[in-house]
Amino acid sequence: MTVQSYDIRHGDAGFFARLGERVAAVVERIGDFYAEEGRLRQLMALDDRTLKDIGLSRAELTSVARHPLDKTRTR
Fold first, then answer.
1. Which InterPro entries match (predicted)?
2. pLDDT tens digits, residue range 6-32?
3. Are the C-beta atoms of residues 32 and 24 closer than 8 Å to each other?
4. What is the tens place of the pLDDT at every residue in 48-72?
5. pTM score, two decimals?
6. Which residues of 24-52 are buried (b: 16+ CB within 10 A; e: fewer)?
7. What does the angle CA 33 – CA 43 – CA 72 come to, to the nearest 5 degrees?
8. Cα separation of 51 and 55, whole Å?
9. Contact, 26 vs 8, CB < 8 A?
10. Exposed/middle/buried for 18, CB within 10 Å: 0-12, 13-18, 19+?
């Protein structure tokens, strides 16, 4: 019986590169989630008068927190 050697350092470099990319994408999504939550918390802390002064209503806060650079919002 012949045993074939397998060198993990060279044999599947593409797999580890793809795995690294996937991990990086997940970490980025987690960071985006926490940034969104922080923006929403800050907006929710504002009183109604301040929100009105900047042209927002409470109903729009989640949308604004998720898409802060949305140019289609009219105000």
1. YjiS-like
2. 555 655 678 889 999 999 999 999 999
3. no
4. 999 999 999 999 999 999 988 888 8
5. 0.65
6. eeeeeeeeeeeeeeebeeebeeeeeeebe
7. 75
8. 6
9. no
10. exposed
**In the numeric block, which tokens belong to residue 15?**
């797999």
Tell me the C-alpha distance between 36 and 2, whole Å.
56
**Tokens standing for residue 12:** 């599947």
Token pair in block for residue 14: 């593409």
The residue whose two tokens read 């012949």 is 2
Count of positions (residues) in the chain: 75
Question: Residue ranges per domain, the chain?
Answer: 39-66
